[in-house]
Amino acid sequence: MTRKILPSKRGNVSGVTVVPAVEALTSDAKAIIGQQLALLRAKSDKGVTLSDKETRQITSYLDSLVRLLREEREAAKQEDLQGYTMEER
């Protein structure tokens, strides 16, 4: 799902800016992280010792993945709570 931001009627604007939904960006980020981790895992499965730079990349990817999953969980929790009144929460 994408959100379209239409230009204002004032001024001379040439087009429409399309802003992708947060869920799509999160999904893309997880896919990229998964691909990069798979490449590094394949390298280590071959018996190749990973460099310090590559181990830092793995740590960074995993930290980012954990952060994304926490944010998704928090968003899902907030979405679930929106259906309840304050007394039901």
Question: How would you characterize this protein structure?
Answer:
The protein has helices spanning 22-45, 52-81; strands at residues 2-5, 17-20. By secondary structure, the protein is mainly alpha-helical. It has one domain. It has a two-stranded antiparallel ribbon with strand order 1-2. Helix 1 (22-45) runs antiparallel to helix 2 (52-81). The protein is flat. 0% of the residues are buried.
Q: For the largest beta sheet, what order do the strands appear in spatially?
A: 1-2
Shape: flat
Q: Averaging pLDDT over every residue, what do you get?
A: 82
The whole-angstrom Rg is: 20 Å
Annotation keywords:
single chain; 89 residues; mainly alpha; two-stranded antiparallel ribbon; 2 helices; flat
Quick gist of this model?
This protein has one domain (17-81). The chain has 89 residues and is mostly helical. It has helices spanning 22-45, 52-81, and strands at 2-5, 17-20.
